[in-house]
């Protein structure tokens, strides 16, 4: 496995792979990896000759400076996990290299990015779509893998790939959960023991189902601070704040 932080170095390796005729799978991440990320990686390894994983805490998708600063980072542990999994390249560029335009250009979706996460995190999806478009152009993968954990993100990335005639196939992968049902997330490490127990309750209330109003009132009854609970396209989606940590999840309705 090679860890690459300079884009020129990556570009020449990409050319070599192109000449060799390798198919390339890509998994974009913000690091602090867990089994959820590794499920995407493993699927890419099965479906492609070569797999690239990017690790970049993307500043433009954070609407709160404190959340960006508190985001867990552990490149050494991440690279160890990816090497063990059999990944070929880890791309870990500086944000400045990715935003060589000085953050002047961005992708905006004007409709579906404005609800749910977008309504609570202004500019979040502009940041996500911009970095994903840049990374897809840099990596030029045949397939890119995204988790259903970030359901709205997956839908918006699919929409962007279609709208902008991208060659990459966008593949959605199921949510990986802890034994007690909590969706795995890099942010879970920031939950203390009490908050961790309430986070599991959040997952079980959501999985028990019901109308959006019923789920909201059950969560509020448990003292959980609810950002939203909404039904969309046959999914029940929710975001809450527990112990200062924002958690999202979704289930088939
Ligand atoms: P992140 O590092 O949080 O940006 O996530 C990178 C990718 O991993 C995204 O496509 C996420 O949807 C996906 N992902 C994160 N957590 C999970 C999970 N628990 N199950 C499946 N995919 C996940």
Write structural notes for this entry:
The chain is an alpha/beta fold and 253 residues long. The termini are far apart. It folds into two domains: 2-173, Rossmann fold (3-Layer(aba) Sandwich), CATH 3.40.50; 186-252, Pantoate--beta-alanine Ligase, Chain: A,domain 2 (2-Layer Sandwich). The protein is globular. Helices cover 42% and strands 21% of the residues. Strand 7 (225-232) and strand 8 form a beta hairpin. The chain contains ten helices and nine strands. The strands form two sheets. A six-stranded parallel beta sheet has the order 1-4-3-2-5-6, with helices on both faces. A three-stranded antiparallel beta sheet has the order 7-8-9, with helices on one face. The mean pLDDT is 97. The structure holds adenosine monophosphate. The site of adenosine monophosphate has 17 residues, from helix 2 and strand 5. Adenosine monophosphate (AMP) is lined by residues 29-30, 36-37, 39-40, 146-147, 149-150, 173, 175-176, 183-186.
What's the N-to-C terminus distance? Answer: 41 Å
- State the CATH topology of the largest domain: Rossmann fold
The CATH top-level class label of the largest domain: Alpha Beta
Total count of strands:
9
**Quick check: average pLDDT?**
97
* Radius of gyration from the alpha-carbon trace, in angstroms: 18 Å
In spatial order, strands of the major sheet run 1-4-3-2-5-6
* SSE order: EHEHEHHEHHHEHEHHEEE
Number of domains: 2
The coarse silhouette is globular
CATH superfamily of the largest domain: HUPs
As a percent range, the share of helical residues equals 40-55%
Largest sheet: 6 strands, parallel
What is the CATH architecture descriptor of the largest domain?
3-Layer(aba) Sandwich
Note the beta-strand portion: 15-25%
Bound molecules: adenosine monophosphate
